[in-house]
Amino acid sequence: MFRKSYLVLALIASSPAFAQSDNEEAVERITIQGEFRRMTVQEAPTSVTALVADRLDQRNALHLETALNALANVNFSGGSSRARFIQIRGVGERSQFVDPIQPSVGLLVDGINYSGLAQAAQLFDISQVEVYRGPQSGRFGADAMAGMLVMESTQPTRDTEGVWQLGAANYNAMQGGFAVGGSLGAVGRARLSVFQQRDDGFITNNYLERDDTNDRSERNIRFNLFTDLGSSWQLRTTIHDLHQDNGYDAFSLDNSRQTLSDEPGEDDLDSTAARFALSYAGRLANLELSFTHLDADSVYSYDEDWTFVGIAPGWEYSSFDAYRRDRTDQTLEARWVSARPLALLGGETDWVAGLYHYQRDEELVRDFFNWDSYQQDQFFSTYESRHLAAYGELAQNFTQAWRLTAGARVERYDNPYQDSNGVQAEPEDTMWGGRLSLSYLPATDHLWYATLARGYKAGGVNGEALGKVQDTELTELRDYLLARATFAPELLTSFEVGHKRVNADDTFSMQVAVFMHQRDDVQLKGWVNRDQSFVGYLQNAAQGNAYGAELEFNYRPVDQLELFTSVGLLETEIEGFVTEDGVDMSGRDQAHAPNYQYNVGARYAWSKQLSGVIEVDGKDGFFYSDSHMSRADAMAVLHASLKWQAEDWQVTLWARNLTDQDYGIRGFYFGNDPRLEYVPQTYEQYGEPRRVGVTFKYSF
Questions:
Q1: Which segments constitute the TonB-dependent receptor-like beta-barrel domain (predicted)?
Q2: What's the pLDDT tens digit per position in 19-52?
Q3: Which of 22, 282, 479, 580 has its CA 20 to 30 A from that of 646?
């Protein structure tokens, strides 16, 4: 299949889309925020995709998960009401239950670290989403071993402007919000956005005779203020407030969208965050001092048996599981970026230097109630994560065409952990990462590059597994769990070569990247499922390997028509990972790592007022877990939209998943059906079904 995918890539690359056109329409050059310096996508020596607001609007993407299938070599996992965890090039977590984790793929929204909280990634009034593939630890630290997503709100101007938006869709979905910005005189330029959405979810609970046990109600408020403090100083103030009151009733014993839960759970998040960034524009260097604070209180609960008492003759078991987390983050950072290059080695040298401190305090309360024995178990844990880093980067321009960029980051972590089972541990270590890039720019909007990068993520402790040691009388199981008490940091080393270009008449843009990477001390999820125990833990496999490619292009053959395509190819392999059952997974694909992904589509404008888009997201099947062999099926999902615009008014009719395909986004393999005497089988959570709706927008 992988070789066939490369054939598809070759056919696309050799298609007529590489011809030039004489029309006056231009493909868009997008400036990205995620690098140390502002630059366009075509100038960055790494595989990066930027989705702008218009691209998000055509899918009516109100949350990040709705846009992820359009991105090459980017996947996500369900297991909650909104996707919390993202995988890039086959690397990334899929869930979190008892123990704290370090995300492999990070998320920044207006400079605030939401890594591990991707359910907060609401897209209203977001100007663009940037997706950086491959190790980004040299730029962002431990949360970006495999990649980083950067979201930026629409920036205020000095003129008063804004937007009102209303919409409705099937499943009783309603949305509404506004954004307004402009000058506040001496206070500065500000923009406020407020948005609310709700729907009934896509589940029918046959036992409770309800169709809203998986409902979603989400409100998001963002405020950005830019204040000039003299001619050289500026203060950016950012405030976020998010409230999610979502149901969680997603899994069915029959692998359908009809559940039998008597105690459907919830998936809630309340978060507030603020960031203050003080910048100084100097003659020799620019300085930015920033402080960030985030509070995130979440509740994740579910009917643990997925059913009701009496579903089978004599079956009286029932249980409910709830996880309540309080997370507090604080970040301090000082960064110096050269305003004027130094004269070194016969050319100009730009430089960056910075210091970074990050602390995350997380408290967990887990309530597990067994209705059969009327026994309630409560578990407490605290986790204090402290990271201190120093980083720098040099960009040496040998000639106008050749540039060498070298950057490094050294990061020390100290993460004390303790819980109500008496487990205490303090994982600590020093890690380093960075990148070395050689770029060749023979002409404007033409870039060839080769990048060697290294990313890292912290080690940790398996508190749940250690706590279970006290409960078991099996010596073999006790020894097995004790051997996995802690796990070491993971490292990812990647080599990537790529080419980016925009043609002379601005009708065609392309970027292609080919990569290979190696993971050392790979942190993989394992499970113990015996002695009446179902315990998850992380362990270090020997290594994991991958290679693949990404291709993106946009082409306007005529003024009215734009064609767009992205293709991701991926081959992964696990080495040295043996499950608790003794199964050696060496040689198998990594979890949530499809061999191919694609998004292909076209935009056509019949007039200045009327235009339409049709596109397809496709994805190969993939393994749900590194610990079992259950797989998601391949999928191809069709979307379409029709937009009418007249002056300040816009009406969009949109549809996602027009063929109403069921496709898996999370899967487990175990026995949970008493009607089948708990025979193990695959249980899946499905992605979004057919959605149709209309959105009204007024801009001023």
A1: 221-658
A2: 333 444 555 678 898 999 989 898 999 999 999 9
A3: 22
